[in-house]
Design goal:
By secondary structure, the chain is an alpha/beta fold. The chain has one domain: Peroxisomal Thiolase, Chain A, domain 1 (3-Layer(aba) Sandwich). It has 13 helices and 14 strands.
Length: 427
């Protein structure tokens, strides 16, 4: 049993997203409801000699909308995406005009990044080999390291509270949001800028994932490649993007008249302790993380209306997650919708948890569940409701957002529809 002894409520007052299917929250949400795939031929580099030649790239992104030319030149793409999503979230939260209501000493930044500036690292390594050490950029290190995301955001917004990056592969931003949530709930901070970012569609990354056999190889039909829970699924589609949330202590948000979008009420984390890259087939780590999140929030399993699944479309991963969900929810699993939005966004690695937390909040807020696209053949091991037929319109009081990763890392967030009548997080 998890006991924090805290009753401070943590609400969401701003969100931002840059994804392969939209450059902000509204465009991404519309594309999700429309079942739009973000997959297509790789354009960020010449992939003609690669075994996998497609990905889910962010399209038509202009960093100059958020950074001046000097700032854009000094920021690798994963940093640019984070600044963009962070700016959107801060603007929606009402912190975009001079930050008058932002308490600097009690505002922190935690962002999940799995890889960091891999495009820059590869380019600078080529320069090292072709021209020599003197031609390597003096900005290589600060532009490459994952924690520069939180460093830059703290500089931009003057946030002097807790400041660090979480690195746990594809669970990175699930962990960042969970730790930010706990920081506010236990009274350490009042505001947290939290989320994830990633841009690692590079020759080395694509070749490495392809060599592992973890990515889909459907080069002839990229839009149909990512097929979570389908019997013919053959791996994930690499993506990129950023998701950012402004988390705030309830009374602080009320006092400044903020619009509240949703509420984070629970967080669970665990390890499979099984294998470097394969999930535990029995789903034990996933089960523990979900159980902890539900227990942390003081919920009953019947409160859960939607699960944004990790759902990467790997044969073992989807089956293990389905098994874990059934063990956690019991009979209620049959009436719970399990959606896999990676079927449209691809897998943005360290940014996945944050993007999917925003989606889970929107599901609760708007009472509509995006579809899981590309389902063609049922798998006996994956026998739940995965929203394959299109958007599902129904009230969702609470959603779980799952993030599971290489290394056996598991994170789960419980996100509740905002209801001003509640006075405590749990009984």
């Amino acid at each position: 049993m998890i006991h924090t002894g805290a009753t401070r409520r943590v609400v969401i007052t701003g969100v931002g997203m840059v994804t392969p299917i939209g450059l902000d929250v509204d465009s991404t949400w519309d594309a999700l409801l429309g079942g739009v795939s973000g997959a297509g031929p790789i354009t960020l580099f010449d992939a003609s000699d690669q075994a996998v030649r497609f990905a889910c790239e962010v399209k038509d992104f202009d960093p100059l909308q958020y950074l001046d030319r000097k700032g854009a030149r000094r920021a690798d793409r994963f940093l640019q995406l984070a600044i963009a999503a962070g700016s959107q979230a801060m603007e929606q939260a009402g912190f975009g005009d001079g930050l008058a209501h932002l308490p600097p000493d009690r505002t922190g930044v935690v962002v999940g990044v799995a890889v960091g500036g891999l495009p820059l690292l590869e380019a600078q390594h080529r320069k090292l080999l072709s021209k020599g050490p003197r031609f390597v950029s003096p900005l290589l290190i600060p532009m490459f390291i994952p924690d520069m995301t939180v460093g830059l955001l703290s500089i931009v917004y003057g946030a002097r509270g807790p400041n660090y990056a979480t690195v746990s592969a594809c669970a990175s931003s699930g962990h960042s949001l969970g730790l930010a949530f706990r920081s506010i709930r236990r009274g350490e901070t009042d505001v947290m800028i939290a989320g994830g970012t990633e841009s690692a569609i590079t020759p080395l990354a694509v070749a490495g994932f392809a060599s592992m056999g973890s990515m889909s190889t459907r080069n002839d039909d990229p839009e149909k490649a990512c097929r979570p829970f389908d019997a013919r699924r053959d791996g994930f589609v690499l993506g990129e993007g950023s998701g950012m949330l402004i988390l705030e202590e309830l009374e602080h948000a009320r006092e400044r008249g903020a619009r509240i979008l949703g509420e984070i009420v629970g967080f669970g984390q665990s390890a499979d302790a099984y294998h470097m890259t394969a999930p535990a087939p029995d789903g034990v780590g996933a089960r523990l993380a979900m159980q902890q999140a539900i227990e942390d929030a003081g919920l009953a399993v019947e409160d859960i209306g939607y699960i944004n699944a990790n759902g990467t479309a790997t044969p073992v991963g989807d089956a293990a997650e389905t098994k874990a969900i059934k063990e956690v929810l019991g009979e209620h699993a049959r009436s719970t919708v399990v959606g896999a939005t990676k079927s449209m966004t691809g897998h943005p690695l360290g940014a996945a948890g944050a993007i999917e937390a925003v989606i889970s909040m929107l599901v609760c807020r708007h009472s509509v569940i995006p579809p899981t696209i590309n389902f063609e053949e049922a798998d006996p091991e994956c026998d739940l409701d995965y929203a394959h037929g299109g958007p599902i319109r129904r009230p969702v009081p609470v959603a779980l957002s799952n993030s599971f990763a290489f290394g056996g890392h598991n994170a789960c967030l419980a996100i509740r529809r905002w209801n001003d009548d509640r006075t405590t997080v749990r009984d």
